[in-house]
């Protein structure tokens, strides 16, 4: 009799566990984005766009990852650091990690990945960053790898956290073409379907970490913002990653979704190209800042959902200096600055000229202005800027470009006067590529900014082990940059995601978004 009861109890436990497993497999998350997905190969893209990074975070994993809740780097594929010296680190890798095709992950894959990222990577910025960092990589055993650095490294977790590890056995030789559409990683989800209509991910049953309720994720492209919101409100989709500020109320009033605010770690700016002699004049740059009412723009077009900034760091960023305040809106002061710089309206047409009769005129490049559905307010921001610059005597001519043309004009040929840019930062929030003079000819220092005092402080910052000293140095850097005005620092926007009420315990990574999706839960309503 006892044996019979025991058998029934065991059967009941098995049925319950099986039902829970089936429920986990059946939970589906559906979402859309406006951007077309790029190649599903981390090192076969010229740049990593935000929507692509979100996809990569489902498929691949790095050695280390940043936890925004704990505000520190955590282990991902790395298990522990065995040796840490200023120019060397030995890492033990996690046990029992498998690729999506069932093969074992090992140190060979780590070596192969970094070698590929440094030498055969289409992303020049990442290639250069790694080449300047790593002297050598040595495989010590199947689960141990040694990195030797060219310079002292204060935090190896941070320096090695942005590289997605890829499988050597799938990419050796010339297998990249197949991998672009059929990638495998060690991440919580694997690609089960990939076609022109979208991508479907299914949970990887042998994942070494935790996966809870979401067994499938479906990502489709819908270019039009109104269509994406209609899909969300009609329950055709479950998630909208970035709700425009002017649509937050509409979604909230329907009561069908949770709105999840998250720090964007991005800043909205207008870059000055120092190669233009007129923009090389600080009075002109300051006049354009004081002549542009950024506070009204933020309140009018983004419902005040953000913060004005006076420098390159957001209030939530490490080492933010609260004493760096945005310059006030003072059009009269702006006109005086231009007059002091020798500009006047010599032919009474409302625009200023220099002593040689050259009009104070600038071209401003903007990306996808007519189709920028992620930020429908951008058109209004640009028009306000044109109008307010006209008010102080400056003519602005708009050049609307596609993503690829914008990238070529701004980051490669530097063929622009002004550029409307939203600058995104990773968890390290390293601003040196934007302002360090040795970066003038790199991808990111698009303004051509150079200041010896800033260079010296960056060098001291990188070499310092003292947090208080680093805080003092970075505060000083922010103050100098704010005085020099290489950009119009406009604002940092608050982001909001909208997700169906069926989903709870939703934790969002501000950069990769889905980094903690394996903790999300699903309930029946």
TrEMBL record:
InterPro entries: Peptide/Ni-bd, SBP_5, SBP_5_dom. One of its GO terms (molecular function) is peptide transmembrane transporter activity. GO terms for cellular component: ATP-binding cassette (ABC) transporter complex; outer membrane-bounded periplasmic space. The keyword Signal applies. Residues 75-429 form the Solute-binding protein family domain. It comes from the Bacteria. Pfam families: SBP_bac_5. Keywords: Signal, Transport. One of its GO terms (biological process) is peptide transport. Residues 1-24 form the signal peptide. Belongs to the bacterial solute-binding protein 5 family. This is ABC-type transport system, substrate-binding protein.
């Amino acid at each position: 009799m006892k044996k019979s009861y025991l058998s029934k109890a065991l059967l009941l436990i098995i049925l319950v566990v099986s039902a829970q497993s089936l429920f986990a497999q059946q939970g589906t998350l559906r979402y859309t984005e406006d951007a077309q997905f790029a190649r599903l190969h981390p090192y076969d893209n010229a740049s990593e766009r935000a929507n692509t990074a979100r996809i990569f975070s489902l498929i691949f994993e790095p050695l280390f990852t940043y936890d925004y809740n704990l505000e520190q780097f955590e282990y991902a594929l790395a298990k522990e650091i065995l040796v840490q010296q200023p120019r060397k680190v030995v890492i033990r890798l996690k046990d029992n990690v498998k690729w999506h095709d069932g093969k074992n992950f090992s140190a060979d894959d780590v070596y192969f990945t970094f070698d590929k990222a440094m030498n055969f990577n289409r992303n020049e910025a990442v290639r250069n960053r790694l080449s300047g960092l790593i002297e050598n990589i040595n495989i010590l055993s199947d689960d141990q790898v040694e990195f030797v650095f060219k310079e002292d490294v204060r935090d190896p977790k941070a320096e090695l956290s942005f590289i997605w590890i890829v499988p050597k056995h799938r990419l050796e030789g010339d297998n990249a073409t197949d991998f672009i559409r059929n990638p495998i990683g060690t991440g919580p989800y694997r690609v089960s379907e990939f076609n022109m209509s979208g991508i479907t991910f299914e949970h990887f049953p042998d994942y070494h970490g935790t996966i809870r309720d979401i067994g499938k994720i479906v990502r489709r492209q819908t270019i039009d913002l109104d269509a994406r919101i209609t899909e969300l409100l009609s329950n055709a989709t479950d998630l909208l990653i970035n709700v425009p500020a002017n649509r937050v109320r509409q979604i909230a009033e329907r009561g069908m979704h949770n709105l999840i605010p998250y720090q964007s770690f991005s800043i909205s700016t207008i870059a000055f190209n120092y190669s233009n002699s007129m923009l090389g004049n600080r009075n002109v740059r300051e006049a354009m800042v004081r002549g542009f009412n950024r506070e009204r723009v933020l309140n009018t077009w983004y419902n005040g959902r953000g913060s004005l900034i006076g420098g390159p760091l957001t209030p939530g960023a490490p080492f933010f200096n609260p004493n760096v305040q945005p310059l006030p809106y003072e059009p009269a002061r702006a006109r005086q600055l231009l007059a002091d710089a020798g500009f006047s309206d010599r032919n009474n047409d409302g625009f200023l000229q220099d002593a040689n009769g050259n009009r104070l005129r600038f071209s401003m490049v903007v990306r996808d202005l007519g189709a920028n559905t992620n930020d429908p307010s951008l058109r209004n921001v640009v028009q306000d800027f044109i109008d307010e610059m006209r008010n102080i005597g400056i003519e602005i001519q708009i050049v609307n470009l596609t993503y690829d043309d914008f990238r070529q004009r701004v980051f490669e040929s530097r063929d622009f006067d002004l550029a409307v840019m939203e600058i995104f930062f990773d968890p390290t929030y390293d601003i040196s590529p934007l302002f360090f003079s040795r970066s003038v000819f790199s991808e990111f220092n698009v303004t051509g900014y150079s200041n010896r005092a800033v260079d010296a402080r960056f060098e001291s910052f990188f070499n310092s082990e003292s947090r208080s000293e680093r805080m003092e140095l970075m505060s000083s850097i922010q103050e100098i940059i704010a005085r020099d005005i290489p950009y119009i620092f406009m604002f940092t926007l608050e982001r909001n995601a909208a997700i169906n009420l069926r989903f709870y315990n939703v934790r969002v990574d501000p950069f990769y978004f889905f980094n903690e999706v394996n903790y999300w839960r699903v309930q029946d309503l």
